[in-house]
Amino acid sequence: MSQLIVAASTLDSWFNKSGNRWLLADENGLPVVAFTSFLSADIRNESKVVSAPVEEGSFATYNKVATPLEVSVTLGIQGDDSTLQDALDTLTTLQAGTQLVSLVTPNAEYPDLNLEGFNYSRKRENGLGVLFVELSLLEVRQVRAQYTNAKLAPRRERGKVQTKERSMATIFGL
Fold first, then answer.
1. pLDDT tens digits for 63-102?
2. Burial, 135: exposed, middle or buried (Cβ in 10 Å; 0-12, 13-18, 19+)?
3. CB of 119 within 8 A of CB of 134?
4. Are 68 and 100 spatial neighbours (Cβ–Cβ below 8 Å)?
5. Secondary structure of 14-66 as H, E, C letters
6. Strand partners, 24
7. pTM of the full predicted structure?
8. Which of 7, 16, 51, 134 is the most buried (most CB within 10 A)?
9. Per-residue model confidence as pLDDT tens digits over 25-69
10. Which residues pair with 48 in a beta bridge?
């Protein structure tokens, strides 16, 4: 058995004894993929400051924009061939669709994540019944349009302007 699986199993049992849970859940809080070991989670949370050039070669910076959360998760799944195939089928469906999932860790819950892609490996050294899966998740920020009923000023009829016929005497002041 690989040292990686032994270490992951030790970590999983430590977290379970302390009451903390690691979970990849759907909108109802149910597990999306049943995994044996949670190996790692890398979370990237950034903001960008907008910069624009101004006169004489200098720059002005303004406004800070938060970028979507990027999460990379590595899971270990152990089981027979049908269990591993079910996990891969579920991940393929998630990757192709728009379903949002939540990553629950002992420290925080990261909701509204979409599976952008995943990599998996099976190695003889770890046993044929073990699958290592790396998931790439991206936060989807959901916004709702807000509409208000604004009162507009009534439209005014300005009338039509018609030309007046003038005589040559009026034009030349005669």
1. 888 899 999 999 999 999 999 999 999 999 999 999 999 9
2. buried
3. yes
4. no
5. HHHHCCCCCEEECCCCCECCCCCEEEEEEEECCEEEEEEECHHHCEEEEEEEE
6. 103
7. 0.67
8. 134
9. 999 999 999 899 999 999 999 998 888 888 777 878 878 888 999
10. 65
